[in-house]
Design goal:
single chain; alpha/beta; Rossmann fold; 5-stranded parallel sheet; globular; binds adenosine-5'-diphosphate
Length: about 180
Amino acid sequence: MFDASPVLWFTGLSGAGKTTIATEVRKRLLTAGVRTELLDGDEVRSTLSSDLGFSRAHRDLQVRRLGWVAGLLSRNQVLVLVSAISPYRETRSSVLRSLPKGLEIFVSAPLAVLEDRDTKGLYKRARQGEIQNFTGVDDPYEAPDSPSLHLDTSTEALEECVGKVLRMLSKECSIDVF
Ligand code: ADP
C-alpha cells in the first residue's frame, strides 16, 4: 500500500487568509504534479453540510465531516488542504490526530485588521446584529496551542506565507515543489 498524503488544516477567523493561502499553495502543488483537493468550509456548508447551523454542536459536526472526507482523500494519495474556521481546539485536535498526517496551520491577524479588511462585509453585518454567532465577534475562537505553523497575515505577505507552507511540506513530508 502507498502511504497516506498530508492534510494541511488551515484554521483561523473569517478573513484571516486561509482560503487565499490554501488556493495559492494548491496551485504550486498542482503545477508540480501533486494531486490535491481543497475543502473549503464555506463550500462544504453549502453542500454536504447544508443541514448545519452555527451552534457549537453543528460547528463540531462540520469539522468532523471535513476530517472524514479529508481522511478518505488522503489515504488515496490526494494531498488535502482544508480551509475552515474550525473554532474549537479539542474537536480540531481530535480530528487532526485521527489523520495519518494532519498538519495544523493557524492563520491569524488582529481582529481590528480583519474588521478593517472585511472583504466579505461579514464583520460589519455581525457588528450591526444582522448576523448572530459570528466567530470572533459574538462566538468563540480557540487558537491552537502548538500548531505546526503559525502565519500572521498582518505582517507576512501572501508569498511569504505560501513559502512557509511549502518549506514545512518539504521538511515534514519530503514533498518538494521548489
Ligand atoms: P478566510 O479564508 O480566512 O476567510 P480569505 O482568504 O477568504 O480568508 O480572505 C483573506 C483576505 O485577506 C483576502 O482578501 C486577501 O487578499 C487578504 N490578505 C491580505 N494579506 C494577506 C496575506 N498575507 N495572506 C492571505 N491573504 C491576505
